């Protein structure tokens, strides 16, 4: 599962997700309001917060389909600790 920073970064870009509703790995991001502009903004936030760069291969609709896929992609970009 992801860390709280990921949840905090993602929620502002999901205007249709009620504050009391859990964000799960399968939450459909587009259905909860993640549009193309918000995707670009979220991408910049995640790159800065986690000090990574998304590769061109990762910049696709599937990556931003749900939090689970997005976190998996982000995790692969982070250096091993």
TrEMBL record:
SUPFAM superfamilies named in the record: ACP-like
Domain Carrier, first and last residues per copy: 1-78
UniProt xrefs under Gene3D superfamilies: ACP-like
Top-level taxon in the UniProt lineage: Bacteria
InterPro entries tied to this protein: ACP-like_sf, PP-bd_ACP
Database matches in Pfam families: PP-binding
Protein name: Acyl carrier protein
């Amino acid at each position: 599962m992801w860390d709280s920073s990921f949840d905090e970064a993602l929620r502002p870009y999901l205007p249709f997700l009620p504050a009391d509703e859990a964000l799960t790995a399968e939450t459909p991001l587009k259905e909860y309001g993640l549009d193309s502009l918000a995707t670009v903004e979220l991408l910049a936030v995640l790159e800065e917060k986690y000090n990574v760069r998304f590769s061109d291969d990762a910049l696709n609709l599937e990556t931003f389909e749900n939090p689970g896929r997005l976190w998996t992609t982000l995790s692969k970009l982070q250096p091993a600790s």
